[in-house]
Structure formats: structure tokens, C-alpha cells
Amino acid sequence: MDDVLTALAEQQAELGAILDGLDAAAWGRPTRCEGWDIGDVVLHLAQTDELATGSAEGRYEEVMAGLAAGLPPAGSVDDGVAAMVRRQRDMPPAAIHRRWVVSADALVTALGTGDLSRRVQWVVGELSARTLATTRIAETWIHTGDVADALGIGLAGTDRLRLIARLAWRTLPYAFSSAGQQLEGPVAFRLTSPGGEAWEFLPDEPAVTTISGPAWELCSVAGRRLPASATSLRGEGPDAEAVLALVRTYA
Fold it and tell me: What is the mean pLDDT of residues 190-212?
């Protein structure tokens, strides 16, 4: 199996190990996603995994139409996914759990069928199947943390963070464009892995801005789970403040 698909399956397994054996009361615990309990978070993952599977199979519009059928037009991606969760959140926890397990397995299978360099449709337009897989690793990691936090479980960092950090670095132009801003020049990330190794993401041209610090903190900032001010991340260069404000791993 390709490394990125292996990482996706491993991230799904980390969440699955937490969810297995939870009672109904635990599924109702509130999370750091405002207004969502654990059931809502897992339902959202199932819905978006289904959408990603549709994308990998060339059925993105069909699956999206099914998930959004009957819902009013959404003003933003966040509004749209919130509406989809609200409509189906009354499912029993066991049904949500099973739906996510099925959707997670189907996603790995669908992404692994064919060349990962193939272009597929996603929320922001077309991207490679490999990049779609990486975005699913990032989102599953973010929401695994949400579930773990609600249950008081601490999670260890893994080398999967390298893929997430690289995604955040590569999509900086998109993040700036979405915010109506423009980078002054190339950006470098010089990060420290959970095991203490150096992870460097360097542009082809000399960087004018460099972000340094723990990879876990950078990924948490990009996932909107930590403000940069609460981390030890350091930035040098004209775009340092803006990069830490705008970096992201999702549409």
C-alpha cells in the first residue's frame, strides 16, 4: 500500500481504537467543536469520508447531491457541513459508529484503486487523489484529537504529522488567496518532529519567511485547534504573522 494510504489507515485506526467500546453517554460528550458532541464529530467524518470516496470514484456531484438534498443553499463550507450534521444527528451512536467504519474502509479502498496522481474533484476544485488522501489524514487527525480531548485522553504525536505539516506548507498560497491576501515571497517551515528529528519544507527559491517550532504545534494551529500565540512557534520575515494566522489544512 502507498505510504499516504498507510498513514490514512493508521490514523483511522487510532480513532477507531478510541471509539470502540464507548457507551451512549460518552458519545454525547461535548467536544471543542462548538455545538458538536462526539457523535456529531464522527457523523461529520463519515459524511465527508463518503464524499471523498465519491470523489475518488468520479461520483462527487452525485454524493454531494445526496448529502445536501433538501437543504437550503449554504453561505460557506462550514455552514454546509453543519447543516448536513444537524439533519442526521439523531442517528443512534451505534449506527453512527458503523457508518464511519464503513465509510473509512471504503475511502482507503477507493483512493487505492488507480493512480494516486489522477485528478479528482473536491470542495475547492480539482486536486490529486494523493492530496485528497492527505487532506483526509489531516481532518481525521484533527477530529481524533477532538474526540480524545472530550474523553480526557492524551494522544502521542506520530510521524503522520509530517504529511499534515507538508500539506499546510504547500497550500499556503491557497490560504492567502482565500483570505484576499498575497504572500510577499516563498515560505520555509523548519519543524521538529515528535521524535526530535528536523523536518524541513523548503521552497525552490530562497525563503523570505521562515516558521520554526514543533510540528505538532504547527499542525494544531493549521487545524484551528490552537492559536499561534499559545505555542512556541517562531516566525521570521515579512509574512510570519500572516502565515501563522492563515495556515490551514482544510477548505
Answer: 98
